[in-house]
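[Solved] Which block belongs to which protein?

Original post:
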Amino acid sequence: MLTEKRVLDIAIECGYEHEQTYIRAFKREYGLTPGECRHSGRIIQVTPPFNLFPKNNVCGNVVYGPDMVMIPSFHLIGQSYRIEIADSLTKAPEAAKQFWWNNRHKVPDPVEPNIYYGLTNTLDPSLSWTYYLPSMRVKNLSDIPNGFSGCTVPASLCVGFLYIGNHHYEEIDALRAEALYNAIDRLVEEHKGRYELLDNEFFFEKIDTDVYDGQYCQMEWFALIRVKYT
């Protein structure tokens, strides 16, 4: 289970010695405090000082990024799978499709009925497996059906990529997933120094099924990012 970081901890990670200094700077930049941001559910767009990564080709489609965003804390309910990392490119898409076709209707009162979340949680980077949670967003975790799991994603500074493919979203298969992750790895390698991608902790994809227009689909991909100070 992921836990939400304190504002003080986030302030220190961002290079501030005092919590109040970070809060004042945050409010000056975005018009609300970090606490207000968490409770509002808003996603705060963070403009990096330069373009970190360009767009890249993925199987004839494109991935754009990054967008640096503050992700507010949110709750997910879904079905948890323990998946070997070596099998993740095939097993995760299969689990996602089975959940969406057969079990999403069992999640009580989803906040976004047409949006799929796939959360990968790496409890220990030394292990050969991860937990994958095909899921939907809910207001709270007070009503988790039998056989389902709940998880809270903490408020975090994340980097986001946008994949646009000229196919149905259900065709995001092992081949396209591998190409997408390879592209992200290449993009990350283009900028070493100030930012560190922490996808070895957790990351998630988000698919709005309503976006598909009969020709193109979109998938958003988010992972923790840390600003490194030298």
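(Second protein starts here: sequence line, then its structure tokens.)
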Amino acid sequence: MDPLFYLADTLIFIGIFSLLSLSLNLEFGLTGLGNFGKVAFFMAGAYAYTLLAHAAFPVYLCFLGGALVAGLIGLIITLPALRLREDYLAIVTLSFGEILRTIVKAEEGLAGGVRGISVPAVFHLGSSRADALANIALTLGCLALCFLLLQAVAHSPYGRVLRAIREDEVAVKALGKNPVSFKASALFIGSCIAGLAGGIFAQYLNFIDPTMFLPTVTFLVWMMLILGGAGNNWGALLGGVVVELMNRGTRIMKDFVALPVDPNNLQFIFFGLLVILVLIFRPQGILPEGPVKTAARKEAQEWISLL
């Protein structure tokens, strides 16, 4: 296999999962919302992109449509749960992920059911080096745009309100703000980014089926954010890079070392040990929010009090 193709594959998957990690950081790291159904919005974006591509829409409309469909589904599903305790949101999103996957498995007409569905590709990775580089540019370009957007959000007055909600929702209510509307908007934006990642994923692989969207995807994204550092977009990026490189490393290790266990099982052992060590010795993550957290809390309180 051409080393460029393997490098391209690694970079593309790093970009896709970093997008998911960034979207979860907006929801949980900044706003304190426990979304345990991240894979559902990832899947919604992938299938929406695929159906739009089969309908011969322009590729940019396919990506945009996939992101908007995932965002709207996230908004509709989670809005009722936002008025309840935080743990209800986790239960609702986790359950919805399995419900959506079951629906897709049963849908033979549009989604192909358990057999899956082919995806019209913009670039074919295996056909030429130019296509491989184009896939990298597409994925990392979308990642860069979303990162810049989320950095702007984090340092905006809107982002300060999100942090204030995370720190003390009662105080935010007392200051005349509506936490539900801010939470809903954060979930909408986060779900849109997850849907965009799903569209890139579908376009890249040229085929999707329900077995690609298991709950383990959600827990993998949570692992990225915990390791990298919740509340810090740079930490979310770092977590995506570290986990994906470890994932690839354990797969190729079998070619150089006789492993006593299956590589897939070995990576989960490594992930588990790494999470335990980080939670014990550095619970705030590799790149924590740090002093920004205190400053942001103070800024948020001052800004809200002026409104």
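Accepted answer:
You had them paired correctly. Confirming on the second one: The two ends are 60 Å apart (CA to CA).
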